[in-house]
Amino acid sequence: MKLVTEPNFADPDETYARLLAAHSGLSEAESHAFNAALVLILMNHIGDDAAIAEALALAHRATKP
Amino acid sequence: MAYEHRRLPYRRAPGLDAPEPCHDVVIVGAGPVGLAMALDLANHGQGSVLLDDNDRVSIGSRAICWSKRSLEILARLGVGHRCVEKGVTWHVGRTFHRDREIFAFDLLPEDGHEMPAFVNLQQYHVEEYLTEAVLANPLIDFRPLNRVAAIRPALPELYVQTPEGSYTLQARYVLACDGARSAIRTIMRLEFAGELFEERFLIADIEMKADFPPERRFWFEPPFHPGQSALLHKQPDNIWRIDLQLGWDADPEAERAPERVIPRIERMVGHRDFRLDWVSVYSFQCRRLDRFVHGPVIFVGDSAHVVSPFGARGGNGGLQDVDALGWRLAALLAGRASERVLSAYDAERTFGADENIRNSTRTTRFMTPADGVERLYRDSTLALAAEAPFARALANSGRLSRPCTYPLDAPDDPALPATSRPGSVAPDAPLEGGWLMRQLGPDPVLLALGREAPRIDGVRILAPALNDHLRQRYLGNAPGALCLIRPDQVVGARWTTADAAAVSHEIDRMWGRA
User: Fold this and answer.
1) How far apart, in whole angstroms, are the C-alpha atoms of residue B183 and residue B158?
2) Is the pLDDT reported for residue B284 higher than 90?
């Protein structure tokens, strides 16, 4: 399975706002823990090794260009 | 009650009085691996001299979890059923986080196997049974209190010290079964590369009466040992194995003291009505030799590779080394095989060691995460595990020893089930009046299911009546199959149909002659 990088949200601004709202009221440490849990949940949802590998590589490029 | 260590019979070595003839095989170290090695060679008609630096079986229970595969190997050596009878059979493991159980696993969910998934039994009992078998075997010359002080590996020649003086031994092959601190490895200055994990564990065997079920219980951050992990295993004779994570800062000497150990265990079991049987503090290491075969010196077991203990891959991995070497070395010495079989031992068991090290390293990472992101994901996984089944699959308190599937380049048929593909240990199955596994070895076997087997010299044909277990494990939807099973009970090749020439060719390859 190829990683979907074209827009895939019905309402991108709404989804982005929801992500930020989910962090509201969390300390920085709690936000990190929240993100870790979210990554694990979404990785399992995707499941496909190739798509996950592509996602990891893309995230890496975005972090350390 | 405490185990009573008897002294093994010491006899004056002939080499002290006159030079001994060159022996075929000298085995150094009479732990479970060395003892099993001598017995496995003897099963194939090959004698050996077995040296050990002391005259007692293991002090402390040390290895306790014997896997199904080890029990099958031990059964071939004549002691497997004694181990099962004496040991505590278990197949359920429970994993807890803080005060709640997050999941349980069953290691042997299907029936139709003679041996259970695991038996817990103190190493000294296993060594005692193996030692009795060794002493009763006329092909094995067992010499307790014979310590190897030096080796000239090229010849090879060993300098052996005894209470009555020193002598020299020559051998065609020296098998270094001398454990994690192998003297032979040290003398030969071989690099033992790998990783030391910055973590310490307290390991204790206690004697107490308790009615916990025979299950493996593992806790992450339990209330009785905050922030660390803990393991509880049942052994025979009311002995319980406890592992408690201490952190890297712990002082190993101080932590071994009973006044430190007893309160820790009291918090875990809830009372002080127990006796300390054995205590040790250890750190995790995963290391292996680059090669296990160094000319005529061959490394077997912990001398060749060490892993962290969660997963029971040390002793069980060592017995699988024995299994991979015995038939090959015996055939080489008998002139049936070429030296290439030793390269095959090296290739298969370095592969097996890598799999064990990989599993063990991953467990260690999960159990003792580094500060920062490793800990973040570990904690997150445990927090999710109670609600989300996928996170239970990630929670790693030890991936328990199973034999690897060797990457064999051998004939196979995609119509046949994956569980018996070449390179796998042949799955056991019930036969009329017995078990398949007991019918396999010490010679190669051609398992003929729903097919006429071609007759080939040196190959025993086994054509049992079909049943559901055999069908499921060896045939799938195919109407018939021929499986060539090596002397170590590993599937060497398989076909839905084959002629004598095809099978003969695989036999020749097995002996390193093609």
Assistant:
1) 12
2) no
Mutate which: A28, A40, A43, A63, vs B, most B CBs within 10 A: A40
Mutation choice for A interface testing from B390, B392, B396 by most A CBs within 10 A: B390
Domain with CATH 3.30.9.10 in chain B: 195-285
Q: Which chain A residue lies closest to B382 (C-alpha atoms)? A: A37
Whether B381 sits inside 8 A of A40 (CB atoms) is: yes
Q: Is the model's pLDDT at A1 over the cut of 90?
A: no
Give Dmax over CA atoms of chain A in angstroms.
37
Would you put residue B34 in left (φ > 0), alpha (ψ -120 to 50) or beta? alpha
Position B1 scores a pLDDT of 67
Which residues fall within 8 angstroms of residue B166, CB to CB, at 6 or more apart? Answer: B16, B149, B159, B160
Task: Report chain B residues whose CB lies below 8 A from the CB of A37.
Answer: 380, 383-384
Give me the total of CB pairs closer than 8 Å, taking one residue from chain A and one from chain B: 27
- Rounded Cα distance between B24 and B17, Å, is 20
Q: Where in chain B is the domain with CATH 3.40.30.120?
A: 418-510
Q: pLDDT band at B152, cuts 50/70/90? A: very high
Residue type, B345: Y
Q: Is B278 helix (H, G, I), strand (E, B) or coil?
A: strand
Q: Which residues of B touch A (CB under 8 A)?
A: 373, 376-377, 379-381, 383-384, 388, 390-391, 394
The CA distance from B20 to B168, in Å, is 8
CB contact under 8 A, B384 and A33: no
Is 3.30.9.10 the CATH number for B195-285?
A: yes
Token pair 């200055």 is found at B189
Residue A49, domain extent: 28-65
Per the CB < 8 Å rule, is A37 touching B383?
yes
Strands (E), B126-268: 140-143, 147-152, 157-162, 165-176, 192-207, 216-220, 229-235, 239-245
| d(C-alpha B62, C-alpha B82), whole Å | 19
pLDDT in tens, B159-185: 999 999 999 999 999 999 999 999 999
